[in-house]
Specification:
Distance between the termini: 77 Å
Strand content: 15-25%
Number of strands: 17
Radius of gyration: 38 Å
Shape: flat
Helix content: 40-55%
């Protein structure tokens, strides 16, 4: 038995070394990608610095080059001076080529004069930079035309940035800068390789040390195992079943109950004399089907044990959750002689879990979903809308003059008002919708599964909004007092293609403030002109 384990350990060592090597290669790749990302970011920053420096020269050239053909543009008197300016600005840098593009994508300057006048309006780097997203691209060039020579077999990094007077000013053109990064790429590869090699070596040494430790532990465990084999079956049963304070049950190999302890009686209500000789099936709650018990006994047969959550029934008929562990007791020949079950009543733990869930996802005053659960459901609803092409809606509800209720009738009355508003909102919406409380006097209602037609969905939203307005305009019984309150509602339709749930909630909030500005006690639906006109 134990020599086989040693052979297995040696095979495991080889497997770990191979795995570590694969992980090392993966680390090498990730490290290289990270270093390249940093290099690209630095190159974009360098290009942006050059763009700021060269902007006046570019602006002067662009102002006079728009109507010139390619031949005239190459002869433009500013080309030579800009070329000198560019070479001076790029001195001590690894820059090998510079290009200016006007906003139409035409090359109005290049250190490679043959490219002046060419149209690059469809170039992805030009398009991305013009839209405010700098772009870098690393390529390997067999041949490349540099400032005054041709270079071969080099890695070239090119970056595109917009030329603009300030960060929010419109783009006046695009600057593209090419740099020779061959030496840097080689250094990056060497550095990543050294780190990877060190990682592989460290893991190999660590596993070798662990192997000898496990080998020694294996010898000790083998000795203990042989000692345990010489123990009597009854002593194993007693030690397993009754040295614990948990509810314990012992059955024979056929599942007939032989013994239970006092904790079992306290949990189930059954004294020992009523269960001995019976089958544990008498405790079944009926919540689990035959497939559940079949999988449980299959696990016991294969591994010798099973543990998991189970619902049983007490003597008084009450169902309760428990954590059950079943272990098979075997003789020296490996045959099952007994089964030992340890029962742990987890009723209080389940209650605590439910309370934690309620505190995390539900408002404690009204019982409605809170902001966390609302945002989760809203994200899910937007995904469903995008798939089904149906609409949803968001209604941001703020109670008018709620502070006056607290000030005049007290905070208890204010709490009662919030609770009654919550119940009325639930009465107004459908089962597929969500009514939630964000906090204070702010509520949000999310409507799902509205019509695919935007006009019909708008009508459905209007009907539910008017229903809520009518309900919340009815008197509220606040203890001995009768109170009145009105809502201001901001609403918006969505189809799942909006930018984010936060942006959608902000638009509904803005619409609510418009309702307040219009005199309160009303609903304003945020309009999306393009979609409304199309509808």
């Amino acid at each position: 038995m134990f020599p086989l384990l040693r052979y297995f350990s040696i095979a495991s060592l080889a497997a770990v070394i191979v795995t570590t090597a694969l992980l090392g290669l993966l680390h090498h790749r990730v490290e290289r990608i990270q270093l390249l990302s940093i290099g690209e970011s630095n190159h974009v920053a360098l290009t942006q610095s050059f763009a700021n420096t060269l902007l006046p020269s570019f602006r002067e050239l662009a102002a006079t080059a728009r109507n010139l053909d390619t031949s005239a543009l190459k002869q433009h008197p500013l080309i030579a001076s800009i070329d000198r300016h560019v070479r001076g600005a790029m001195q001590n840098a690894r820059v090998v080529k510079v290009k200016f593009y006007d906003t139409d994508g035409r090359t109005i300057f290049s250190t490679d004069a043959t490219q002046i006048g060419r149209d690059y309006r469809d170039n992805q780097g030009f398009i991305s930079a013009l839209q405010g997203r700098p772009l870098s691209e690393l390529t390997h060039r067999d041949r490349f035309s540099a400032f005054d020579r041709e270079i071969v077999d080099r890695d070239v990094l090119s970056s595109y940035v917009a030329m603009r007077a300030s960060g929010d000013a419109p783009a006046e053109g695009v600057l593209e800068v090419y740099s020779d990064v061959t030496d840097w790429i080689e250094h990056t590869n060497q550095q990543a390789f050294i780190v990877t090699l060190a990682t592989i070596l460290a893991f190999s040494l660590l596993y070798a040390a662990l192997y000898f430790i496990v080998r020694r532990a294996d010898s000790l465990l083998g000795t203990q195992y042989r000692q345990l084999q010489r123990s009597e079956s009854e002593l194993r049963v007693a030690a397993t079943a009754f040295e614990s304070q948990e509810a314990m049950m012992v059955t024979n190999a056929d599942g007939v109950i032989l013994r239970v302890n006092r904790a079992f009686t306290e949990i189930t209500g059954y004294p020992a004399e009523e269960v001995v000789g019976q089958n544990p099936r008498m405790l079944k709650s009926g919540r689990h089907d035959a497939a559940f018990y079949r999988a449980m006994w299959q696990s016991i047969a294969q591994t010798g044990s099973w543990q998991g959550e189970l619902w049983d029934r007490r003597k008084n008929g009450e169902e309760y959750p428990e954590w059950l562990t079943i272990s098979a007791v075997k003789d020296g020949n490996g045959g099952v002689t007994h089964y030992v079950g340890a029962h742990l009543d987890i009723t209080e733990r389940k209650k605590a879990e439910e309370q934690i869930k309620a505190m995390a996802f539900y408002d404690q005053l009204t019982g409605l979903p809170n902001r966390t659960l609302l945002m989760d459901r809203l994200g899910h609803a937007m995904t469903l809308c995008a798939r089904s092409n149906r609409h949803g809606a968001l209604m941001f509800i703020d109670l008018d003059h709620f502070k006056a209720v607290n000030d005049s009738l007290g905070h208890d009355a204010g709490d009662m008002l919030l609770q009654q508003v919550a119940q009325r909102l639930l009465h107004c919406v459908r089962t597929c919708d969500t009514a939630s409380r964000l906090g204070g006097d702010e509520f949000v209602v999310m409507l799902e599964n509205l019509s695919e037609s935007r006009p019909e969905a708008m009508q459905q939203l209007d009907e539910i909004g008017n229903k809520i307005l009518t309900e919340l305009n009815q008197p509220f019984q606040l203890g001995a007092e009768v109170g009145h309150n009105t809502p201001s509602i901001g609403a918006i339709l969505f189809n799942g293609r909006e930018s984010s749930v936060d942006a959608l909630l902000k638009l509904a909030d803005d619409a609510m403030y418009q309702a307040k500005d219009r005199g309160r006690n009303g609903m304003v639906i945020h309009r999306q002109p393009a979609l409304d006109e199309q509808a």
